[in-house]
Queue: 2 jobs
Job 1
Amino acid sequence: MGTHIKIERLMKYLYLPIEIITRELESKLLLAVGAANQGWLVVLGKKTYYYSNVRKLPRGVFIIKSAVPSELSYLKEVRNAGHRIVCLDEEGVVTFPEFIGNDVRFSKATLEQLDRIYTWGSAQRKILLDQYPTEADKLRVTGNPRLDLWRGLSEVIFAERVSQIKEVYGEYVLIPTSFGIGNNFMKEVASGLSHTLAASGRTSDDIRDFMEGQAEQNAIVFREYIDVLPALLIKHFNVKFIIRPHPSESSEPYEKLAKNFKNLSVVYDGAVAPWIHAAKCVFHFKSTTSIEAYYAKKPTITYIPPLPTCMDRYELPIPNIFSSVCRSRESLFKAFEIVLTNQDLPLGMCERDRSFVSEWIEPEAAVSCTERILEELDFLKVEHVRPERLPRSARADWIGLVKVVASILKRTVSRRHRDYFKIASKYGHHKFGGLSEVDVEAIVKIIEESIKGTSTIRVTRLSSEVISVATDDSQC
């Protein structure tokens, strides 16, 4: 693999920053391979690479995963450097309508910096259109490449990994948790709610109250899951359970629980897809994995314990529709009895539910979500004639800077703030641990074969955290 790329002909550039690698890598690679086949040179990697090099990179198109108010200054910097910006909201399907606008996921100021907003379905587009009618021309319903994976490609990509997991763990129940507020990774120095509020803009009192109520519900249900799991583990002592903590969560409470039960493991390893495909069933709370499990034809259980009726507004309909909903411990234990004795678990999805889902998740069509996005992107391309060279990774610069900053902090900043920066750094590494050369090339090869591309794709490493994807004749 090369150490840099030199471009000697007309080129168009696509930049794909990744925040959470276990969630975004495969879908970003699917988009990258498709784009490379259409003549794009794609740069894919950790967000900090783009922060440092935004003015050094050839003008191109950025596809970002969010446009929250706290990112406004970064969006302006990208825009001022001559790039175009598209937002493909990774969290736009299993979320509250209240969070899509209202200065939470988007604000008027961040939308003004964007050239396009690609939505998961018509419902997300309608919410944005109602709140920000002046941005109507930027809204496009495309779906998300993750849908293309869920609808069949992930089974192909991860076939070997699924076999390996089954060989090691055998039959198991997968518990992909989603208590990022009640059990936040950085809870030692800041609450999950404080992170949500910090990322948001000047929200109204009503939205802030909604956030606080939703955070309270998340914390209550987290404690109930911790309380009910021992009973499940004892009742089904001969069944393996695997907890996969959400990337935003601390694994500590689950590891503490696992010490007391031989049939419980805590595993956070790679993409969740192969773990779903290898599982007997999936047990979750308000998780996007419910959709993925549905497409993988896995029985899916969610438990919503008895709560005050005022908390009904904090339920999310999409995960419930894709799951067998249990509202008491008794019904939960019964659902597990059904699944673990190989009986069919009632799903209960009615025609009205299907109609609702089709508004939030773009229905499957002859043209894939990836193809729709690529078609839209071509209208935004910025091409270069003169030779361009991509900058090296910012890693060396960041290491030097971090040492200087650390020295200053040690002398001038309180212990509490030093602890915050230490845990924040650990959290960043947890979300993006690096790009495996072998894994990336293997996935790219499978994608190439699946989409029947006409060109040979080459992956070039710029650092341990950044790669480029392009056709052979685009590189030298």
Job 2
Amino acid sequence: MDSEIIPAGEVLEQDAESGRYQVKELKVKHKQALSLLAQGVSRGDVATICDYTPEYISMLCNMPIGKAYLSELTQTAAIQLEGMFVKSVQVISDAMDNGSVQDQLKAARLQMEATKRIGAAGASAIQAGDGGDRLERLAHRLIGLLDKQQTASGRTIDGDFQQAD
């Protein structure tokens, strides 16, 4: 085991089956490092913050105990995203009721994609060579349908609704 990678005082045990070195229990510092990674902080920055080497951060992530902790963190985030679904539906409803609210629609779209409520073909359509953004096309279609509905009972000028004389 390379002593330059393993921090001083860190005790790793070699797994009999795989031959890899493992920590048996995550310390607070390990959890901090993994939490920072889960938040999108780079491996190098995490290493600096936690006084580890980037290689040790990689080792920690690849250990079964590290993977399990990261999985717990992502499950918590998934539950939070799932809980926002109703709010996204309300934003879409508000946009449909009150006119063009593009920023709200974009935010709702992102949240709904993240919870896989919409866009089931999303990744597979792009891999299949579709190349287009299916959700973007659907959003434009929805806006077009709303415009047609407004035009039927009045005029649309710059996206604002005006009652016909």
